[in-house]
Amino acid sequence: MIDLNKTLGIGSKKGRLFGIIVLLILAVILPLIFGMNLFLLTILVLMVIFIIYASSWNFLTYTGQGSLGHAAFFGLGGYVSALIATASGLSPFITIFIGGGAAALVGLFIGVICVRLKEWFLAMVTFGFAIIIQTLIVSQFASISGGWDGIAAPRLVSTTIPYYQLIEYYSIVLIAVLIILLFWIILRSKIGLAFAAIRENEMEARAAGIDPVRYRLFAFLVSAYFSGVAGALEIHNLGYITPEIFGVDISFWPIIYSISGGLGTLAGPIVGTIVITVLWDGLRMLGITYARFVIIGVLLVMIIIFLPKGLISLPENVREFIEKRRKSS
Amino acid sequence: MAGVDVVLQVLIWGLYAGCIYILLATGLNLIFGVMKVVNFAHGELLMLGAYITFTFYALSGWNPYVLLGASVPLLIIVGIIIERLCFRPILGTGKLNEIFISIGLIYIVQNAAAIVWTDEWRIIHSPYERITISVFGVNMPLDYLIIIITTALILIGLHLFLRRTRIGKAMRATSQNRNGAMLMGINVERMDMLSFGIGAGFAGAAGTLWVVSGQVFNPYMGSIPAIKAFAIVILGGLGSIPGAIIGGLVYGIAENFAIFTLGGAWKDAISFIILILVLIVRPTGLFGESAE
Amino acid sequence: MKRELLLLCILCIGFALFAGCTDQKTATDELKIGVVASMTGPASTTGKDIWQSAVLAAEEINADGGVYVADLGKKVPIRLIQGDDESTREGGMKAVSRLITQDNVDLLVGGFSSAVVSAHQSIVAENKVPYIIGGGSSSAVSRRTDIDTSYMFFHRPNTEDSAEIIVLFIDRVMRPDINQKFGFSENRPLRLAVLYQDTSYGTGQRNAVHDYIKKYNLNITVVSEASFNMGESDFRTALTSIKSANPDAVYTVTFLNELIPLVQQGRRDVGMNTIFFAIEPNDDPDFYRGVGTYGEYMMIQSRFSPYAAPKETRDAHTAFVKNFEKRWGGFPGMMGVVTYETVYAGAEAVENAGSIDKAAIRDALDKLEIPEMIEVMKNGKIAFSEEFRESKFELYMAQLIWDQGAGETRPVIVWPDSLKEAGFILPDWYRPGQD
Fold first, then answer.
1. Chains A, B: CB contacts under 8 A, how many?
2. Secondary structure of residue A299 in the 3-state scheme
């Protein structure tokens, strides 16, 4: 049978609630403790944006799909939102959702091609789409996208407003909470059950009258949409967009975050993003350069082999291990 | 203007450039055939082959072609280590895991190489660099001819190995039917190790040939050739060697056509557009087996 | 269950603490300069060059007692703080915000890739920290109007400047030489082909070639254009297409990993007996070693070369290269020398301001006028233009001549006349294109 708890995360209901509350409180008070520290805010803002992005990427894996080219959606969301906000003067708070819409449209198109493909092909096709879209942006659409030079984008919250950085941060946190809440609602609904059924056994799901293609497409659409929103948020935070946004690193980070946290769980990408960001920036402060990438790579390989359910399953595994030890002794 | 000699010339360049891709693609196909695993970090093995050649060349000053004798065996060992440590533990736990573990490997190998060799651009000069010979009335650098012949010899060697030797036959049997092979008493795990080793060794050979052909390299150089080799393999159909050769030809023509018409920026993108178009029509690639 | 939450809490608090702990005490007895450089990622070779040269400059200034600040009534030493932008936009954001808030730097220097610089420009603008940028050569970066760039100073030529001097050289020197040598009419236009990297850098120069030909009304026709992706290694098709257009010269916009195979393939494989033009980032020892004999007689546009120096600044050039070699081993690159100069320029501005107040330093930078150091400047001075705060360089053209002793080619400055060491040579094997 399908265990809904497994889909959503780990631990008991009470424990999860407690965890969420602690995390939210920390998200709210952290910037205040250190008196609006710009560095802390920069790290936190990028972290929350990547939590949205990694969660959206992870949404695909609920249906057993994966992507090596989500930078295509991240970047498209950024470009469309930046262009519309600049041309129309609309607030970025509105245009980010239009940017997401553009990413979703393209996502739907890619999804139609991808849903029938095997995993290796899916990986190559998604990877290729990021390159194709980057090429389009710098060549055929260069006159509106600014080509390789890129274009400026208005800030999410105008710099003339006092405490704009803080307002920006809390807005992004709020958007992240709403998006993850929406994911939770979707996964709790019949759609979530259908996702799990398709992932566990496609044949059985078909027999039960579930159309895997439709659900996979839906997952692609949602994933692309919110990846686009995340990209737009980043762009309105940086204030400038260049085609480098379609780079391989942008495609790979959400994968690394999601795998380390735990694939196919709501908590996974959140925990993964936080842990890896802290590790990454922590190692940088220790003056470690290339070895950082090696450490992240080794961590990723070890997690895939020894902790297939990611870091969020670590406490459980440790407890089991201790209990086994106790029993044997 | 586009006389016969120009066409012939372009064909020879394509043949030479194709050698690197064919070695990579054949290695990938071999690994896929036996293990049903796609190693996305294959380009990093090419890069290691290049650096091993570079290091031994700097130390010994020997003819770099002789150093195939160093890069191939060392890469076979590296391949076996990677297979045992990374791919064997996750075999059968889902295709996505294999892809994700390759991403981890890419990060590890690239940056370990940057630590060992620094990430400055490197180059070595072949002793035959300035020698050009005439083949069928077309001028051609001697190095290219040696590379084409070496690749051909390696491929013939592989063919003989797979057809004539016991181990080679066992590998083919494993590739056709893993369970059947197991029942026949073939140690399939040893076949996995061997196929991964040979695949990696081929990438090592490609690395040496890359270096002697006068290309510059740094720790990040492997990704572009590897992606092209993948696209070729997938286009031709996973596990199909004639498919890989035809896939390579299609790409060569398409890329060059794109440079002429759409501009050089489209060179990489066009490969993927073709790949996607083919996959829409035939989701298993041109020559791929339809079954798992 | 409780254990895992505890873990989470510890993690978050730990994170907060480590972010907070690195807060530096504000010491007033030193001048803190943040160096934005890519210590990791694809641009890390350049990043190391930037950092090492900055260290060299700071050590020299400190050995001399430091920088005199009138407000403090004494000389204070420079302390450099490294900000690794990881060659990414996000990494640059984090590095710069840390330099500004945690390390409280008085001045920023460095910056290389235009994409990375444009992403952290807004933080610098909002926090009003003087920033002398040695890279970000796209004028889209230095001439932004959507943010307040008044605290940013650009000590590098714009992308377009390279194109300007190359097309001028071609029209003034190369075209008459060809017409004379091959008995062409004086009015015969020179046939130029452009082969450029498909990036902001490459497209910027391609456009500038056309703009400057039009602006100066030069007798040059662009007969062929081709682009390639960054990191490309096979140029044979593009070169064949160019060759069939019969150019008199080929203008290339590349990095050295592309230029080495490009020249080799062009001269050897495709058999082009023509002059290749290269741009300044290639002027690096690795290039001369890599290109070998195929580089003979090709042209390179430069402002700092490992093997050539205009006589105006030859002593400073020699001293810098020697000191760099002694301190770090190896050669400094173009980004290195720029950073070296910017650290000196920054120190000078602080002395002129007499204070480490950021607005005062900015004003001093605005008015700064110091004699050229290693790179030759327009009017012999490092000064920032009024409108966009860009310094103006005197660029030069060098030709690669075989050096038997080195076993490699070496650059010889042939233009402009004020810096020239020898005349431009059309080699015997050179063949002009046919109309």
1. 122
2. helix
Which residues have a Cβ under 8 Å from the Cβ of A302 and sit 6 or more positions away? none
Eight-class DSSP state of C305: -
Cis peptide before C427 (omega within 30 of 0): no
User: How far, in Å, CA of A286 to CA of C18, rounded?
Assistant: 11
Specify the 3-state DSSP secondary structure of C133. strand
Three-class DSSP category at A189: coil
Is residue B263 within 8 angstroms of chain C, CB to CB? yes
C279 pLDDT exceeds 90?
A: yes
CA of A246 vs chain B CAs: smallest distance (Å) = 13
Give SS3 for A242: coil
Q: Which residue in B has a C-alpha nearest to residue A139's C-alpha?
A: B265
- Chain A: touching chains (3 or more CB pairs < 8 Å): B, C
Residues of C in contact with B139 (CB under 8 A): 271
Which chains form contacts with chain B, at 3 or more CB pairs under 8 Å? Answer: A, C
Q: How far apart are CA C271 and CA A17, in angstroms?
A: 72
Does A113 contact B276 at a Cβ distance shorter than 8 Å? yes
Residue ranges of domains in chain A: 7-328
* Beta strand residue intervals within C186-263, DSSP E: 190-197, 220-228, 249-253
What are the structure tokens assigned to A72, written together?
Answer: 């295509």
DSSP string, B211-261: HHTT--B-TTTTHHHHHHHHHHHHHH-TT-HHHHHHHHHHHHHHHHHHHHH
pLDDT at res. B204: 96
CB atoms inside a 10 Å sphere around CB C67? 24
Q: How far apart are CA A174 and CA A172, in angstroms?
A: 5
Task: Please tell me the distance from the alpha carbon of residue A184 to that of residue C254, in angstroms, as a whole number.
Answer: 50
- At residue B91, does pLDDT exceed 60? yes
| Cβ contact B256:C237 at 8 Å | yes
Q: Output the CA–CA distances (angstroms, integers) from residue C420 to B269, C165, C205, in the order listed.
A: 45, 14, 24
Q: Pick from B93, B111, B272: which is nearest to A131 by CB? A: B272
Which residue of C13, C80, C89, C127 is the best one to mutate when testing the A interface, meaning the one whose CB has the most A CBs within 10 A? C89
Over range B206-220, report the average pLDDT. 89
Q: Tell whether the torsion through CA atoms of B107, B110, B111 and B116 is positive or negative.
A: positive
Which of the residue ranges A206-210, C6-10, C125-129, C357-361 would you say has the lowest mean pLDDT?
Answer: C6-10
Task: Identify residue B56 by its one-letter amino acid code.
Answer: F
Q: Token pair of C44, please?
A: 């890390």
C412: pLDDT strictly greater than 80: yes
pLDDT for residue A241 is more than 80? yes
pTM of the prediction? 0.90
| Alpha-carbon torsion (C198, C200, C201, C203), positive or negative | positive
Full set of structural domains in chain C with CATH: 27-157+315-382 (3.40.50.2300), 160-302+395-415 (3.40.50.2300)
Instruction: Supply the mean pLDDT for chain A.
Output: 89
Q: Which CATH number fits domain A7-328: 1.10.3470, 3.30.300, 1.10.150, 1.10.8?
A: 1.10.3470
Burial group, residue C233, by CB count within 10 angstroms (0-12, 13-18, 19+): buried
Name the minimum distance, in Å, from the CA of A21 to any CA of chain B. 32
CB A55 within 8 A of CB A266: yes
Closest C-alpha among A45, A150, B81 to residue C200? A150
> Of A123, A80, A114, A125, nearest to A100 (Cα)?
A80
Give the DSSP H or E segment for A33.
helix A13-33
pLDDT, residue C246, reads: 93
Tokens 């005199």 -> residue: C68
Kindly list the domain boundaries of chain B, sorted by start residue: 12-220
State residue A139's pLDDT score. 86
B230/A contact by beta carbon, under 8 A: yes
Residue closest to B111 by CA, chosen among B58, B47, B50, B59: B47
